[in-house]
Structures are given as C-alpha cells and as structure tokens.
C-alpha cells in the first residue's frame, strides 16, 4: 500500500519528487519539529485561535531554558505544518506539562484536508502534571488507545487541539522519530475458556520456556498458536492449549523473568435453555456510520441520520444548522445528501432511519447564522472561527432580545415540503423519526423556536409529519417522539403545569394514548415505534476507579426492578410513575406501551456508554447489547459513531463482526448467584448452534462458570479487553467441557459453536 502510493506520487507529480525524496531521506534521522525556542526549518505555524509563546521561560525541559506555551480556546489548536509529508516516520515524541490539559492530537494533510482519528491525551497518559514535563510517544504502528496503525495518508500537519473547555499547557522537544525500537515484552497472560492461556506480547518474544502451573502443579502446554490481528499488528497473541483444564486455585504463568498470577475462583453454576423468543437483529445500530466497510466490519444492522443539526436539514440544498451546539450557524450537510446516504447505507446491508424535520424552518444556505455581533453586540461568546457569530446569550446567561429573526438563517418548512421531499426520494428509509428531541427545541433551536414546546404542540407536529411521511412512503415505519432523556419522558419544557393540564398524566403515557386515539381517527397506525433517547444519568466523567465501576453497574437501570439509579433520578423522582427512583427502562417502557397503546414497538434511537475511549465504555456496550436482546428492544442506534478500532467499536465487532453473529433466538441464562454489578452473561442460538457472551466487569479478578446446556466441541472465540488493552483477538478452540469456563478481568468473551 505504502510503496504503491509513493510510487504513484512520484510518477504523477515530478515536481513533488524532491520533497518525497527528502521525506524518505529524513526518515533516516529524527526530525525535530520544535526545540529550544523556535520551530525547525521547514515548519510553519498554522494554528487557530491560539496564543503561542515559542520562548516561554516559566517552564522548560531541555537545556535552552525555554519551552512552547500554548493557550487555546474551545476546539482551537496548535497546528504545525511541514513542507512535506512525514508519513515515513515511525512516531511522534514530545514533552508536555499542564494540569491534565483537555487536548487531542491528530494529523492532517492533502488537498482535501483529510485527517486521522483524534487521540485524546487522556488515552496516551493520565498523569500529565503542570509542574514538570512528561515525555509521551505516539507510535504510528500502534496508536495509543486502540493499538491500530496510523492510516495511510499524506500527513503533513500535527494538531494539538483543545477540547470544549479550551486548554493551556507547555510543550518542548517535539520530534518525529525515524525509528522506534520495540522492547520485547509479555503484556499479559490470561486464562480463558476451560484450558487456554492467552499470552499477548509485543516485539520478538521467545515463549519457548513458558511454564504454566496450577496450585503448584505444572500443566503441560500441548499446543501454541500465534495470531497477529490485522487492526493492531504491533501486538500478537499466542494461545497456549493445556493438557488439563482449569479449576479453582492459583494459576501461575512464567516466561523468562515475567510472571503472571491469577486466583481462579470456584465456578458459579448456571444453566442455559434455548427458547423461540427472537432477538431483534436491529439492536446493533449506530448513528452515521463512516463507510460501507464500517457497516460490514462491525455488522451494523441499522444506521440513523439524526442529531441536533438535522432538525434544520434542508434537503433541497443539503444545508443544516448547528443550533446551540455551535453558534446557530448554517453549514453544508456533513453527511451529504440524505437520499444518497440512504442509498449507500442500504446498499451496505444496513437498514436506515431518516429524521424528518418537523419545526417551521430549515437552513437556507451554508453561511448564515442567527446572532450576528453587528445586531447583538453584547453576547456571552462568539465563534472563534467567525467572530461575528454569537451564541445568542447575554453575558449574564439570559437569551438576547429581541428573539432572532428566523429568516436570517432559515427558510420556511412545512408538511407540504416534507411530503415533496420524501415522495421524491430515490432511496427509501425503513424508518423515519419525526424530528429529534424537539421537546427541547426552545434551547437547542431557540433562534427559530424560542417558545417552549408543550404536550399539544409536540403531538400535533408528530401527527402531521408522520401522516405525510406515510403518505409519501407507505411502507415506512414511524418512530417518535425521540425524547432526549429521562426527565422529558414525563413532562415538557413548559413544566409540571403542562402535565397537570393533561389529566396529570406523564408525557410518554399520554402521548401513547393519544397516538392510539389517532389510529382510531385515521383508521391506521401512524406510530409504529415508541422512540426514546436514553443517556445513563450517573456522572462517570471522573473516569477514576470508582467512576469506572459505577459506569459498569449503571447498565442495571435498563432492566433491574431492584436497582435504584445512582444519580439524581434515583433520589428525586420527578414523575407520577410507580417506583420512580428505579428506572428499569425497558420493562417500564414495555408496560407503558401495553397499558396505553399495545402493539407499539420500542426503539432507542440514541444511547451512549459514556466513554468511547476507555475500555469500560466497550464493556458497557457489550453488556448493553446483550441486555437489549434479552429484554426485547426492537431497534437501537448508538450515539454517535464509535471508532471502529476503539472499545465501543469492538463491542459491535464482538456480536456481529465480519458476518459471524450472536444468535438470533434468545436463550435463558439462569445463574445461581447473578452478580449484575460485575458480570453480564448472555446466550442465544442460531440454527441449533449456541452462542454465549460473557462480560467480566471486574478490573482484576477472573470469573468462572459451570454452565449446563453448553455442548462441548469446536467454538469460534472472540474477545477484547484484558490487561493488554482493548485489542481484538479471535480464533477457533475446542471447548472440552462447560463445567469451568474462565473469563479474565475486564474482558468481553464471545463463543459460538462451529
Ligand atoms: C501562530 O498562529 C496563530 C493563529 O494565526 C497566531 O495567533 C499566533 O500569534 C501565531 N504564533 C506565532 C508564534 O507565530
Ligand atoms: C496563557 O495563559 C496564562 C494564564 O492565563 C498566561 O500566564 C500565559 O502567559 C498565557 N500564555 C500565552 C502564550 O498566551
Ligand atoms: C528461544 O529460547 C530457547 C531456550 O529457552 C532457545 O533454545 C531458542 O533458540 C530460542 N529461540 C529463538 C528464536 O531465539
Ligand atoms: C495446534 O493448533 C493449530 C491451530 O489451532 C492446529 O492447526 C494444529 O493441528 C494443532 N497441533 C496439535 C499438535 O494439536
Ligand atoms: C528480564 O529479562 C530481559 C531479557 O531476558 C532483560 O532484558 C530484562 O532487563 C529483565 N527484566 C527484569 C525486570 O529483570
Ligand atoms: C440579564 O440581563 C438582561 C438585560 O439587562 C435582563 O433583562 C435579564 O433579566 C438578566 N438576567 C439575569 C439572569 O439576571
Ligand atoms: C407550505 O408552504 C407552502 C409555501 O409557502 C404553501 O404553498 C403550502 O400551502 C404550505 N403547506 C401547508 C400544509 O401549510
Ligand atoms: C385521566 O387519567 C385517569 C387516571 O390516570 C384515567 O382513568 C382517565 O381515563 C383519564 N382521562 C382522560 C380524559 O384521559
Ligand atoms: C415497585 O418495586 C417493588 C420492589 O421491587 C416491587 O415489589 C413492586 O412490584 C414495584 N411496583 C411496581 C408498580 O412496579
């Protein structure tokens, strides 16, 4: 790949050949980017909205007595551009100091400004401090967090970009490395299934002398197979088959001077019983998949065109407006034309969900915005990239007045326009959402809908737009109202007076009852799916050990009738629901449907693990996908687009990757000691073949099960997580017995009978 693209560049652009040669030549030595008090020759400052001091004297790492001090506002960046691509280098090293600065690093280049995935500083190192420099390394063959390879591309720009809170920090000794010497190392050695030790390594490790012993007795290694995952080739895994199976005891694995010890616990007993209850294939969805290959690799069964910006999507020009996510500015649709998007998504084998705008306005162009400084001079914040565009708020946090003129950024929209658009689509969506979280439009889109939406307005908009959607596309399934969160399932933004005025009935049950009446009036169903967005309410942003454990147990709010939510929702019930502190989301919604509009299906159009970059986010996702199947969600799409190689992407791969699926009919799992805080155990069947997913949420303790109903024989195995990080592994094993199946710490395991 790399050779070929270099050859093509040389052949096509003779004028560029010099710089290509320079780059190749340069790779023989390290290439300094910044040292002492200056950028190296050939490097330019392409930063934006960032104060830079190249010769700060308050802190330094080298001998020069100076460093590079950086202050960036939200999403601004220190951006350093080279004269030619640095693709030939092995990695980037730099010294950094700052109070845990919220930044991410990525590379850019080429005429279309392509860029690599962002690498948050927190996944490279969590211990960067303000008072001294820490040296960090980005290995282009093993990117921090995912272990994946830097994608091919003409990268010639290094961006240190601040996240939403801005960032102030110091850098020193920024250098591209010609070579990274990998020290051979055994990263982990973990027991998995009934007689396999999975050893992950980097570099050329010699495992010939490896020994395994259980409670002091040596166990012979009968076979070893080494496997190098395509997505993270810097690490390898060697599966050691043992002559006798695991049982409770002290497992010690030794090679050279490395030693790994695990206390294998007594097996928890349980049974697996097949049933004919189907698992909906449509629970494995995401919003805005990146490509057809992404859909195929992860097995994405449903894809949603959604989010705040599509409320103002104008299909007759492909414009959107960012709303209060970004200064109420219009822009070109980031996902192109909806019709084309449906076409390629469907073509890749994924069902599509299209959001139909249902307010009175859509974006009129790619450039207008609602709160110009020239009209509203005293605003709280202005876009750092467009200092005339404000956020519509006064410095004291109140909205500016008078309210914005909607014609400044928008053009009118109504059901006639929606019908024209939907009727003319060449590619038909399977589902439509009637807009997105419009119950909070007076905040997200206050420039065009400053009045709070109440029960009646929301119902009318959904009925009107759902009716024309079904006229335009008779087969389409309507999923609404796509309420943003727990609070708004029960009331409107007007507040409890609105609830009181509606027979004192919480919003969703009222909405369902009204949609049932609507069916009687229209003589046909116009709501097919009760669609909600579900964001776990506990705050796990600290991402320390306690927050990770909370993140991993909060999945109980999806189903558990005894789990009091560990957030405000669990201490301050703001609804008329029985047991209001216990969310029990899926059974609760199913019972509301049964009471108010039987036959309606349930979809979760947005949900999130709360951390796309941490391994625990991947384990949460594996647990949730199992729970969606078990409790009968009909479709679901993750918000937003998980990185294919990141922990959340791996959870999709685990269940669905590359055409090997978790079964489609649910098997009952009964455990003698269910421990939902620390483990998830799921089973299914497909054409008589058993599949199992076990999620071990313990950070350092293996778990083990003795399961009846799991036949011995050959199984396809996949797993991710463990002490070596999130990398994915898969192979085929011989499961000799199901009376002692081990899952290592922080690991999600998938087994499917061959
Ligand atoms: C780098 O560029 C930014 C953005 O244009 C500018 O604000 C800054 O002053 C420049 N810094 C230096 C040291 O040239
Ligand atoms: C960044 O901000 C800090 C404190 O706000 C200030 O001391 C420092 O001089 C600033 N650095 C630059 C390069 O503007
Ligand atoms: C691996 O180590 C063994 C001894 O433990 C040695 O005999 C063998 O030559 C080594 N293999 C390699 C490739 O270094
Ligand atoms: C060792 O495992 C590999 C891969 O699973 C298999 O092809 C081979 O036959 C096994 N060898 C022995 C001796 O069992
Ligand atoms: C372990 O062994 C390797 C090579 O056998 C050696 O380079 C390394 O220093 C040793 N590490 C420790 C901690 O003894
Ligand atoms: C903010 O200032 C405006 C204009 O002075 C005023 O009308 C509004 O009440 C103030 N809001 C708050 C929260 O004080
Ligand atoms: C929608 O707007 C168009 C253009 O103003 C108008 O002709 C049409 O009657 C409107 N449709 C509805 C249902 O109000
Ligand atoms: C009002 O609510 C009560 C109990 O929740 C219910 O029995 C009654 O039918 C409702 N009335 C209307 C008009 O919806
Ligand atoms: C409320 O929770 C208790 C305890 O879990 C349970 O026994 C009861 O059935 C629940 N009530 C309702 C209406 O869900």
Automatic annotation (TrEMBL):
Q: Which InterPro entries match?
A: GH, GH44_cat
Provide the GO MF annotations for this entry.
hydrolase activity
Pfam family of this protein, just one?
A: Glyco_hydro_44
Question: Where are the coiled-coil regions?
Answer: none
- Keyword Hydrolase in the entry? The reply is yes
Q: Which residues form the Glycoside hydrolase family 44 catalytic domain?
A: 319-537
Keyword presence, Signal: yes
Key words of the record: Hydrolase, Signal
Q: Which domain of life is it from?
A: Eukaryota
Q: What sections of the protein cross the membrane?
A: none
Annotated signal sequence is 1-26
Specify the protein name. Glycoside hydrolase family 44-domain-containing protein
Originating organism: Crepidotus variabilis
């Amino acid at each position: 790949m790399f050779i070929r693209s270099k050859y093509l560049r040389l052949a096509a652009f003779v004028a560029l050949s010099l710089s290509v040669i320079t780059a190749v030549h340069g790779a023989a030595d390290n290439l300094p980017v910044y040292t002492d008090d200056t950028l190296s020759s050939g490097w330019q400052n392409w930063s934006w909205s960032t104060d830079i001091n190249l010769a700060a004297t308050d802190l330094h790492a080298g001998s020069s007595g100076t460093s590079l001090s950086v202050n960036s506002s939200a999403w601004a960046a220190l951006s350093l551009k080279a004269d030619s691509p640095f693709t030939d280098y092995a990695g980037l090293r730099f010294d950094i100091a700052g109070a845990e600065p919220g930044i991410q690093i990525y590379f850019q280049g080429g005429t279309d400004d392509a860029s690599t995935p962002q690498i948050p500083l927190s996944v490279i190192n969590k211990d960067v401090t303000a008072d001294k420099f820490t040296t960090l390394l980005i290995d282009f063959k093993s990117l921090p967090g995912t272990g994946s390879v830097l994608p091919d591309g003409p990268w010639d720009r290094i961006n240190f970009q601040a996240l939403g809170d801005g960032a102030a920090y110091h850098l020193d000794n920024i250098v591209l490395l010609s070579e990274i010497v990998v020290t051979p190392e055994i990263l982990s050695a973990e027991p998995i299934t009934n007689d396999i030790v999975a050893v992950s390594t980097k570099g050329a490790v010699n495992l010939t002398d490896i020994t395994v012993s259980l409670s002091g007795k040596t166990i012979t290694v009968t076979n070893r197979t080494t496997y190098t995952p395509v997505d993270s080739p810097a690490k390898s895994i060697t599966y050691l088959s043992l002559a006798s199976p695991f049982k409770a005891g002290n497992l010690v694995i030794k090679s050279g001077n490395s030693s790994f010890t695990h206390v294998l616990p007594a097996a928890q007993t349980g049974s697996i019983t097949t049933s004919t209850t189907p698992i909906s294939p449509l629970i494995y969805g995401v919003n805005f998949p990146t490509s057809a290959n992404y859909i195929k690799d992860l097995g994405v069964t449903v894809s949603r065109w959604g989010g705040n910006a599509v409320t103002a999507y104008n299909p007759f020009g492909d414009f959107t407006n960012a709303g209060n996510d970004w200064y109420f500015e219009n822009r070109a649709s980031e996902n192109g034309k909806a019709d084309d998007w449906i076409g390629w998504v469907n073509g890749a084998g994924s069902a599509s969900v299209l959001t139909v705008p249902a307010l009175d306005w859509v974006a009129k162009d790619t450039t207008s915005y609602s709160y110009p400084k020239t009209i509203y001079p005293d605003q709280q914040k202005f876009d750092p990239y467009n200092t005339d565009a404000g956020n519509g708020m006064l410095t004291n946090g109140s909205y500016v007045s008078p309210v914005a003129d909607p014609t400044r950024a928008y053009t009118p929209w109504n059901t006639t326009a929606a019908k024209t658009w939907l009727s003319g689509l060449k590619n038909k969506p399977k589902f439509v959402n009637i807009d997105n979280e419009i119950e909070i439009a007076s905040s997200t889109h206050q420039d065009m809908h400053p009045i709070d939406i109440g029960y009646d307005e929301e119902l009318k908009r959904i009925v009107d737009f759902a009716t024309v959607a079904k006229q335009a596309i008779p087969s389409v399934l309507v999923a609404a109202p796509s309420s943003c969160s727990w609070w708004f399932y029960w009331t409107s933004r007007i507040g409890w007076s609105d609830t009181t005025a509606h027979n004192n009935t919480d919003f969703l049950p009222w909405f369902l009852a009204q949609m049932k009446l609507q069916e009687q009036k229209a003589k046909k169903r116009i709501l097919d799916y009760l669609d909600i967005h579900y964001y776990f309410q506990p705050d796990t942003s600290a991402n320390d050990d306690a927050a990770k454990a909370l993140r991993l147990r909060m999945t109980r709010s999806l189903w558990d009738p005894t789990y009091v939510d560990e957030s405000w929702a669990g201490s301050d019930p703001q609804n008329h629901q029985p047991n209001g502190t216990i969310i029990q989301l899926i059974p609760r919604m199913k019972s509301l449907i049964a009471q108010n509009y039987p036959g309606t299906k349930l979809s979760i159009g947005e949900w999130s693990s709360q951390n796309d970059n941490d391994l625990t986010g991947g384990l949460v996702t594996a647990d949730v996908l199992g729970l969606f199947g078990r409790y009968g969600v009909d479709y679901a799409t993750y918000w937003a687009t998980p990185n294919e190689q990141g922990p959340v992407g791996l959870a999709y791969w685990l269940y669905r990757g590359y055409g090997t699926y978790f079964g489609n009919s649910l098997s009952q799992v009964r455990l003698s000691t269910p421990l939902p805080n620390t483990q998830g155990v799921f089973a299914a069947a497909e054409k008589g073949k058993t599949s199992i997913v076990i999620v071990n949420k313990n950070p350092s303790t293996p778990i083990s099960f003795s399961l009846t109903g799991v036949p011995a024989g050959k199984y396809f195995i996949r797993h991710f997580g463990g002490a070596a990080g999130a990398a994915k592994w898969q192979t085929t094993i011989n499961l000799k017995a199901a009376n002692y199946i081990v899952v290592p710490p922080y690991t999600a395991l998938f087994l499917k009978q061959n």
